[in-house]
Amino acid sequence: MKQFLKGCNLYLIGMMGSGKTTVAQILAPQLEYRYLDSDRLIEQVAGQSIPEIFAESGEAAFRELETKVLSELCAYTHLVVATGGGIILNRQNWSYLQHGVVVWLDVPVEQLYQRLAGDTTRPLLRDPDPMAKLRSLLDQRQSLYKQADVRVIVGPEDTPEQIATGVLAEISKILKDHTNQN
Ligand SMILES: Nc1ncnc2c1ncn2[C@@H]1O[C@H](COP(=O)(O)OP(=O)(O)O)[C@@H](O)[C@H]1O
Ligand SMILES: O=C(O)C1=C[C@@H](OP(=O)(O)O)[C@@H](O)[C@H](O)C1
């Protein structure tokens, strides 16, 4: 797998709470890649937390920083990147994501809701009805997540380790298909 990937970055996409950070941290040592989280890089660049950026500068400013950080990651190889849930919204971001292999962790809204109950670090969930908010975000975004190279459907009992194994299995399928075509 490592040799097939040829150092190509892996980008995990999916809704907030889908496990991108958790799974990326498992995958990185398995691939002997470096793990990075785009939200943490944005916080470093801004010198503020994500909720502070949203509160003080608004979502549009956050999205600009997100694009800047992602564009800079393209220069690197051997990265597993846990992206923010909304990274797929900006068309320009896709030109950067497509430098690597894009993996969608597809998790039902009910599970996301359970995992994120009481979470205060995700400004978009500060809503009187977080479940309805998650549903509407997924409705708006699903067609974009579907543009991933690989979709991993996550079941309610799947552990992060099992999901990481599933990611590698799905990636090896597309890499083999690609090799067979050439
Ligand atoms: N497969 C899983 N099963 C149960 N809980 C999980 C799983 N993956 C992640 N979590 C938990 O869900 C929460 C959100 O996970 P996280 O990796 O931060 O998601 P993301 O980076 O996509 O927002 C965390 O508390 C994490 O421990
Ligand atoms: O879905 C979104 O638009 C967002 C998801 C968050 O990242 P996670 O997916 O890591 O929670 C973070 O980037 C920000 O709060 C916006």
Automatic annotation (TrEMBL):
SUPFAM superfamilies named among the record's database cross-references: P-loop containing nucleoside triphosphate hydrolases
Cofactor details (free text): Binds 1 Mg(2+) ion per subunit.
Primary site of residence: cytoplasm
Record-level Gene Ontology MF annotations: ATP binding; magnesium ion binding; shikimate kinase activity
Cellular compartments annotated: Cytoplasm
Annotated CDD domains: SK (cd00464)
Annotated positions binding Mg(2+): T21
Enzyme Commission (EC) number: 2.7.1.71
Amino-acid positions noted as binding substrate in the UniProt annotation, renumbered to this chain: D39, R63, G85, R141
Catalytic activity: shikimate + ATP = 3-phosphoshikimate + ADP + H(+)
Ligand binding (ATP): G17, S18, G19, K20, T21, T22, R122
Pathway: Metabolic intermediate biosynthesis; chorismate biosynthesis; chorismate from D-erythrose 4-phosphate and phosphoenolpyruvate: step 5/7
Assembly mode: Monomer.
HAMAP family membership: Shikimate_kinase
Name used for this protein in its record: Shikimate kinase
